[in-house]
Amino acid sequence: MADTTPFFDRLKAAAQTEWQSYVDHDFIRQMEAGTLPQAVFRQYLEQDYLFLIQYARAYALAIYKSPQLSDMHTIQAGLNTILGEMHLHVRLCQRWGLSQADLEAAPEHSATIAYTRYVLDCGQRGDLLDLLIALSPCLMGYAEIGLRLAPAVAANPDHPYREWISEYASAGFQEAARHSALHLHQLAERVMAPARWADAVAIFAKASRLEADFWQMGLDLGQTRV
Ligand SMILES: Cc1ncc(CO)c(N)n1
């Protein structure tokens, strides 16, 4: 690839509409303002726990699809971030009287199924690059959102979503996202043929849209179950 722009930034630029629909979703704006109803957040977080279980499977699949041992090590670090992130969900849900067993027994919403099984399918039918592209909106998007919302927490120590925002703005999460972006870039340099670009953008755009749908699911569920 002659273009030295980071591969992830090229994907974002090529699928700007879908990316914006995800990172600028109304859910995020309401969260930043602190006006997001708790019922919405709770519905979202329950589904997100189920999402992360499937996401961990997709990371495991990425290890299976790894051509090199170095790929496996990098993906293992990403998997650890995902598994660590689930402690946040368990902690927050415990305060609402929901145990880990309750969370795991909850039914998966179709938006959760759609997104996770889409990612798993990308990995099953494609190679590691396809799978890492499908996985990339997750870590990178939440890292971007965490950074953008951090000032709202700094300005208001009683912000209702302080813990959630701080998790994604944390140095650990930011670094995991940076590592993933670098890995994606290096893998693309190794295996990406120019003819694959349109497919790469299509996968990235679809995953970003499914992230936006995931926020929307939270808003819709919260409205019907207050
Ligand atoms: C839906 C979704 N996307 C990304 C992340 C970040 O890991 C998450 N927790 N949930």
TrEMBL record:
Give the source's domain of life in one word.
Answer: Bacteria
Give the EC number(s) listed in the UniProt record.
Answer: 3.5.99.2
Q: Which reaction does it catalyse?
A: thiamine + H2O = 5-(2-hydroxyethyl)-4-methylthiazole + 4-amino-5-hydroxymethyl-2-methylpyrimidine + H(+); 4-amino-5-aminomethyl-2-methylpyrimidine + H2O = 4-amino-5-hydroxymethyl-2-methylpyrimidine + NH4(+)
Which top-level enzyme class is recorded in the Swiss-Prot or TrEMBL entry? Answer: hydrolase
Pathway as given in its UniProt record: Cofactor biosynthesis; thiamine diphosphate biosynthesis
Per the record, its GO cellular-component terms are: cytosol
This chain belongs to the protein called Aminopyrimidine aminohydrolase
- Report the source organism: Lampropedia aestuarii
| Phylogenetic placement of the source organism | Bacteria, Pseudomonadati, Pseudomonadota, Betaproteobacteria, Burkholderiales
